Amino acid sequence: MSVSLLTPPAPTRRLRDTDDLVDALGIAFSDQQLDAITAPLEPGVIIAGAGSGKTTVMAARVVWLVGTGAVRPEEVLGLTFTRKAAAELSARVRGALLKAGVVSDRGVDESGEQLVMTYDAFAARLVSEHGLRLGYEADPTMVSGATRYRLASRVVKAAAGPFEFLSRLRPASVTERVLKLDAELQSHLVAAEALDAQAREMLLAWDSAPPNRYGNVYADVKKAVIAAQERLELASLVLDYQELKRRLGLVEFADQMAIAARLAEEVPQVSAILRAAFKVVLLDEYQDTSAAQAITLRHLFSGPVPTLGLGHPVTAVGDPFQAIYGWRGAAASNILGFARDFPRADRSPSRRFALTVNRRSGPTILDVANELSRPLRATTPPGSPDDAPQEGLGLLLAPDSTPPGTVRAATFDTWPEEVRWIGDQIVAAHTSGQAPNWADIAVLTRRNADIAPLYAELSARDVPVEIVGLGGLLHLPEVVDVTATLRLVADVTANPDLIRLLTGPRWQVGPRDLALLGRRARDLARGGDPHRADAAADAGAPPDVVAALSDAVAGVDPTEVVSLLDALESPGEEPYSPAARERFARLAAELAHLRRHSDEPLLDLTRRIVVTLGLDVELVATREFEQSNRRDQLGAFLDAVADYVDVDGEASLTGLLAYFQAEIDQGAGLEQAVPSDREAVKLLTVHKAKGLEWEVVFLPALMKGVFPSDRVTDNWVTNPAVLPAELRGDADAIPQLEEASNAGLAAYKAELTRQQLLAEDRLAYVAATRARQLLVGTGHYWRADLSRPRTPSVYLQAILAEAGRQGEVVAEAKPSGPDNPLVTAAAPQPWPKPLDPDGWARRQAAAGHVEAARRRHARTGSYEPAGGAEQLLLDAEEVVAGWDSDIDKLL
Description:
Elements (H helix, E strand, L loop, with lengths): L3 E2 L12 H8 L5 H7 L6 E5 L5 H14 L8 E5 L2 H18 L12 E2 L1 E3 H12 L10 E2 L3 H13 L12 H17 L4 H16 L11 H30 L1 E2 L1 H14 L1 H10 L2 E4 L7 H11 L12 E5 L14 H4 L1 H4 L9 E5 L7 H10 L1 H4 L28 E9 H17 L9 E5 L5 H10 L4 E3 L2 H4 L3 H14 L4 H9 L7 H16 L8 H4 L4 H11 L4 H4 L2 H6 L8 H18 L6 H11 L2 H7 L1 H5 L2 H13 L10 H14 L14 E5 H4 L4 E6 L42 H27 L2 E12 L11 H13 L2 E4 L24 H24 L13 H17 L1
Parallel strand pairs: 2-9, 2-10, 3-5, 3-8, 6-7, 8-9, 11-16, 11-17, 12-14, 12-15, 13-14, 15-16
Antiparallel strand pairs: 1-4
GO molecular function: 3'-5' DNA helicase activity; ATP binding; DNA binding; hydrolase activity
Keywords: ATP-binding, Helicase, Hydrolase, Isomerase, Nucleotide-binding
EC number: 5.6.2.4
């Protein structure tokens, strides 16, 4: 997205001072904002707290510079992250220039030079215009999202091996790791060969690690050795993946940024050309830039002497407290080190401006946000140029006239109680007028897995609701069934997925029959079918073949090769119930039928599964689903599969499953999701909510272990898909492994846990500052899978404290006891669950109508009853019309 401005005629208005600016734009800027807007033409960084009007300030700075004659509009370059943000900044700049009268209508033209673009688009432009200087194609084909998974799965599928350590993983898991490691290499400008060398050095270091007091290798050291060995195998696959992209003429955004970094560093003419074209550079959301992006920008727009860029007017805008994308390569230290990396022409550190007046949220909501960010303000980030803690940074204030806002809190014994209460509150907020539109309300979760029960609760109340992003969709029950079936088509050892289907509402197999099926699977894995002592010998196989088969499985752990699907297809003579045996046979035949179609285009295969599972009929015939938009959500899932566009003719189911698994595991969105304009309550994770705002925001499940989560996923010592810390471009700003020993591992893990909790603090700060009028925090002690109750997190405690001052602690439960009430106090429930009598009656009636229609068609050639369509009720006519439309499309 861009704003394009031709060189305008003389401004219709010249700005002389800040009074002129305020008058021209009609905005009562604060002193903080005016300082940043009217700063001299030199490097500077604006620390813009949440809701402080950074976009307004950037647009006003362009107006000031153009209106005072310092630059022409086309000499200003603005970079941001998303197309949505670029479009917003573009529109704001265009509107501000015209409103201020510093350009005429004729000065704005869509065909002119770009002014605002994304960082990725900027890198693509550099490669397109200058890539040939380093031998790169000027216009390579861009791949992103699902396409990356398809290409990587092709590499994994074709890999010759042998892979001693990766072989324990499913192909989809290997695909995901290849992509993660490749992205980290590109984001930090590290060659795969350097990664290989580091892994070999670490293996030597671990060989010398001190043993325990018994002379044995520590368990954590063993894990580190295995991770290094896996990383060596992954590095070879990453090289193959990079070679495939080169051969096909394909690049990812990270590839283009890496090429742009090389151009910036190795071709000085590129920097000179850009500095001559763009006299002022604005860098939005700088806290989210990667090491490669920061290096590129530093080489392009700064330098050793003024003639080579030292002191070039670059303004970075961002908030280190909103740096929540470290998992995808962002280096929060970039904005803290900006003053050092982009010095003034006299080599002194560039100036830092602060925007702390929040114009979005009520003061009481800001009190909560400030409390949540207190640990961040008291912490000196590793590698920070300042020795002092960041006290005072990010402390938010509201204008004097701002309504106070409301902070509400509640705690519950169980998660279902919390979900029901949130449903009550959402309906009340809408009916009371506090949120006149459903779209004024959002529920922000820490995990995608929590979205499904909230969606079900709101749908049951006929509340329009939208799940934002793929991650939430993947946890809806019907979508889980589809993806489980896809995994079983791709992998016969996907036992958890088979259990999911067998115990679900469709097959309803009980625990006794499942236990028998598991025993049969173990017998088959051992080759010890109790009813056939030696199947190969009984079949007449020669002795040498029998011996070879025995040798092939000798020493194999049966638990590693157990396949419930094998048992499903060959259940043996176990004493199953008649119903279970019949259901096993039907499901086995169903899966065999689907596997015969596994080579179909993926969208066709997925649709076939939807029809085979009966979901298309279920979502129409079942009242619960008919009253919600569950069918629309299944359609959104199919759209996600359709977006898995093939660019090389070799799409794979493995790649699609890896794509889905990455979304489930990361829980943060493979790509930034954008809520639609649909009038509906928004359900999304906090990661997807950055940059958005609502009148009313709910933050559920604020309990220790949920939010904040202390789970460290980026420990390179144990995760082979993570780039070793010493190789990262921001190595001086992150914890390092100081010693290759068990003690060193323990110290490193402790520091990573501390950093993880600070990352959660940043996420909580972002979550709280999304609310304008009402912030609601809730929590619960028990879920069905817990053996011990959770405890309220520091985030819920902060919200409870503020809500208590306002008298808004609506419910404050204590744990009901040491035993889980969702397990011990629940009345005995039959399993399989009995069918709903009303639902069963409706299905029977529908089946009767269908059978009658079949007989009628055989007799008369028409499906319609004698009375014709006129006998249908109005609402039934609409349903039948939908059926007719679907049939027409199929035919």
